[in-house]
Amino acid sequence: MPTARDVAERAGTSTAVVSYVFNNGPRPVAAATRERVLQAAEELQYRPNVLARALSAGRTLSIGLVVPHIRNPYFAALAEQLEAATRQRDHLLLIGDAGGDADQERAHISSFIGRKVDGLILVSVRDQQALISLDTGGVPVVALHQMPPGSSASSLSISSVDAAREAAQHLVEHGYESIGVLTGPIGSPGTDEHLIGVRQAVAHAPHTRIEHRATPVSRYAARDLLRTWLGSQNRPRSVYCATDEQAFGVLNAAWEAGLAVPDDLAVMGGDGTQDCEVTVPPLTALRRPVADLASRAVELLLDRDPSEGPVHLTLEHDLVCRVSCGC
Amino acid sequence: MPTARDVAERAGTSTAVVSYVFNNGPRPVAAATRERVLQAAEELQYRPNVLARALSAGRTLSIGLVVPHIRNPYFAALAEQLEAATRQRDHLLLIGDAGGDADQERAHISSFIGRKVDGLILVSVRDQQALISLDTGGVPVVALHQMPPGSSASSLSISSVDAAREAAQHLVEHGYESIGVLTGPIGSPGTDEHLIGVRQAVAHAPHTRIEHRATPVSRYAARDLLRTWLGSQNRPRSVYCATDEQAFGVLNAAWEAGLAVPDDLAVMGGDGTQDCEVTVPPLTALRRPVADLASRAVELLLDRDPSEGPVHLTLEHDLVCRVSCGC
DNA sequence: CTGAAAGCGCTTACAG
DNA sequence: CTGAAAGCGCTTACAG
User: What does the domain layout of chain A look like in residue ranges?
Assistant: First the structure.
């Protein structure tokens, strides 16, 4: 692989000038010189070594994303939007999949920090408790969920309480006498908020029964749990899921049990990924503003002075009605 | 951020020894010295700068993966398995999403090469024609599909011809008088092979009609096409899809059209992702050996002498029967 | 507008 | 077993 030195020699100039040409600065280069450099680089097939540049300039033009599970379509969609947002800012997105494991998540974070990413976007598998001591060695972090007070990370999220309340309200308005609430594990970000929101909605509908179950955020885990739940005496008339991923499992379990959606069982998802459009039947869901989350996260990392301290923003969500809730 | 120099000073030794401790070599360190170094590193919260290490050692302990679309569950599953395989070898997996775009794919490849990845795993959006001139500047590449002869990249794939033949044979045995074949775009890797395989199967079943359609590899594109196709006079009795992604769209279109699967329309997918378990109804599919592809790909990159030239391996697939084909 | 040189934070022969 | 020093390939003040 040719280096800047090789290019400089061939162009009859110095490595400094090669650097100025490839970075459009910080100093001007005579048009003729620039031409010679470009020419030489072309001939030698020169590609700047990004590592060396990063080491000396202190910026890597990269952003790390760590998600719990890349197979979860919500996180895949997030990755896709972040890819676009970082690309627009001439940065590279590095995606790390934690595989649902806290240690693997830590390893990724640590590895990204070692690689000197310019910023880190995190959806954690760990609970609030564990996130207090998140240490990122000076790299700015944006979490896409609530963060415990005192953390140095910024956060971007929807109001899970409001969202869950609206979702439950919608089910109440349909007249369903019972609502099953399916969330991720107790302690994981958002779980409490979902329950609070649902209870708020039901406070005005005293005849509505609610029942809560938790599973890992996996369609297979959700399906397995629902097999039992739907087979029991007091199976719910409707199920609100904190995530789309779990809702997909519910749809399958209903089908297995011979229950029609929405006539026997109404179902709602909690992310609003595009996948909801093509499930059978299409899935009503709360929708998180994925594109907005992505562009705001990148802005926060790249344009904000970290010394100003963390910022916590709440973004808007909406409810997309499709067949599965009875609309 | 503390550097090796800070640690060395505090431990009363040299940066060389700090390096030996953190890399377990290449030279031995006295137990007492090692202790002091570890102690000092702990106190300072030292994390080696991976960039500097990479620049000087010439290896980054990272592998790049470029996929057409991270939202496609087959590619997400691949990423997940590769993550595990690279982790086992103490390497980091960097995931790049090409967003279905050839330029974006090129940008990712180029960026990974600039970052000096130790190897590159590629699923390309480009057709065979364009891949002839793939230039990776000495970085070893494994493609997870066929590569044009003459390319320097190795490849790992299943036999699409055999797979498609078996799938079509299965549909023929069910007695379906017509098979719709839904593939990715003409010219993209595998498209021809799928058609050849299906034709081979039908050669022995002269009364079976086949008809071919192509869409982008997207469930939404597939759904849109199927809306028309299923509404037409000669809609197929069964559809074999080259990808799961497209099959998901077909299931939805069938539901929209009021057609029961498999009684009115049998459907088969082409990747065999786990998602097929929980569609409504569960999807019969050809299954690609994802875990095997992943571990073999990493082996090829890390254990093979690149000067030996590219190698082309065909891995085993199988057919997983579920409800959607009529089993 | 351009060159010579120091420095980014590591690794690794070269000496001892 | 350990230290002093060169070098990885860039960037960027310092001079001119």
Answer: 4-57, 62-159+290-316, 160-287
